[in-house]
Amino acid sequence: MSSTRLNHIRNIGIVAHIDAGKTTTTERILYYTGMSHKIGEVHDGATTTDYMVQERERGITIQSAAVTCTWRRREDPAAPLYTINIIDTPGHVDFTIEVERSMRVLDGAVTVFDGVAGVEPQSETVWRQADRYGVPRMCFVNKMDRTGANFFRCVDMIRDRLLARPAVITLPIGVESEFAGIIDLVRMKSIVWHNEDLGAKYDIVDIAPELLPQAQKYREDLLADCADCDDAFAEKYLEGGDITEDDIIRALRAGTLAVKVIPTFCGSSFKNKGVQFLLDSVLDYLPSPEEVKMIEGTLPNGDKATRFANEKEPLSALVFKIINDKYGALSFVRVYSGVLKKGATVVNMRNGKTTRIGRLVRMFADKREEVQEIGAGSIGAIIGIEATTGDTICDENNQIVLESLNIPPSVITLAIEPKSKADQEKLGFSLAKLAGEDPSLRLKTDEDTGQTTIAGMGELHLEIIVDRLKREYSVEVNVGKPQVAYREAVTKLVEQEGKYVKQTGGKGQYGHAIITVEPNERGEGFLFENKIVGGSIPKEYIPAVKKGIEEALDNGIRAGFPVVDVKVTLIDGSYHDVDSNEMAFKIAGSMAFKEGARKADPIILEPIMKVEVVCPEDRMGDVIGDLNSRRGSISGMGDRAGMKLVDAGVPLSEMFGYANDLRSKTQGRATYTMEFSHYSPVPKAIAEGIISKTTGTSVEA
Length: 701
Description:
about 700 residues; alpha+beta; 8-stranded antiparallel β-sheet; about 30% helix
């Protein structure tokens, strides 16, 4: 693939809060790029990217969907043809892993905002995810035709709540039902649609005299943004030189790629206004694969290395999504360097296994087109290989492990049991398939009771999993009540010895480890450090000590919940020339941790949810009082489109049934959103009740 060809690729994601219009925007893009000949509407259950039965029934996106389309700038037949790989992502917080893994492989993102609601909680979440991966992005303020839409308030919210610098490129012509088009501040022209028919062409006309003062003001702000992004532009601007359209695009592009400014647009996807201009702007401002930072990885010897977006580089690709359908396993990959070819032999760095690539496809939601190769910078899928999310696929002779994904913690668990013996035989296999697709789904089987629990991001997440078990795998299950996924942690430094000695005739067992157990920073997880000097424990046994500690973490300290945010340091120990082995040191490590953790004043942690309630002003007192009664902490209040906004942090355990309570307290006029924020210690009295309920014994006992 030539450099010119790479310049003509865009890998973008459409991301937003739920109901901001992501899927509707994607449907318009597919129509205008000629990839579909009929626009599917979310409310009709006929969209291209929402193809799952559950998505069409609920009118929401559950799985991210990849589509490929082509576009010429300004719809000019003489302009070069660009390939745009689009990933339409969910907006519901329960499916945030879909956004996370999409962000990992995207070069740019279009963040869609509801023109009435502006920046909503999940908007902030996806923004932070984009920040984590350094993804350049644009903002599209959608639904400008709706009552209460306010573009300028949305721009202020982007600036204030996301701490971003929006570079306003279009202004709305008219508001609400009178929204007729946009003013392009780069060309200083108006783009006006005379009706809402899909085939209607827009007219490019001079800006109306009554709109000119506002356009000139925002044009000056835009030029100032450009000057801050590009030194050559700044020099020309300050000297009063003639500023061209290309000058502005070049400067804004530089600022966007550096995430200094965020090009910001407006429109109405449902009314078919502004989508063509948005497509042009994707080409103008978002990066090609060779313009983003080089992908970093780790070589087999532990050294860091980089790969360039070039077909002449060794092959490196990341598996970012798995789907199991009637045709078999489908592994979505982003090829970062080299070329992935049909028939080639590659290695999966997770398990070291080599495999031959049988079939490659380019995806169009649930449809596929077979291809011979997927080049650097492109997204496609492999049919029939053994892989999991986060695996690196690379050249046998040039091995590298790319950085994997950040998997959010599960916050809710559900006990399930098969209804019949036939269901029991299929349950394990089916859950393993679903967990392979969804890294945020955790499975656990109690060895004593045989009970299976699934843990995920929320009630809707687990509801969808149970529904998929029934529909896709024909497994009927009985479901328990949702339970909070608590965690345990230690609060002080303790030194502890673990010694496992067993002699029963013949060869014995001997493992001896001395460790320190101490709290780690909240949210940093488990850290193991080896400080053995002088060979008191041979280095080949140290991984076994770590493994034993990791297994003990899963079984908890006081109530059986997984232990998090703990640092364990191996400081000393001893071994026996004949009787020592890996199993003995694994047991010794586990014994040392269990005993040490019990002495380290363990506590129970609970998930705290960030809750945002939008309610009428006359009901705000009732809403705040109710949140306080749920152990909530009010963090802020504000206004939104004639309603009052209440932000709070509330324990998840207190939020079950909140939807019904909120409806009754506000006569159905309030709405709320909720997403995971952090883990926090449970008050002592409540913790004692949790321990007693979980273990079946009193705390004193």
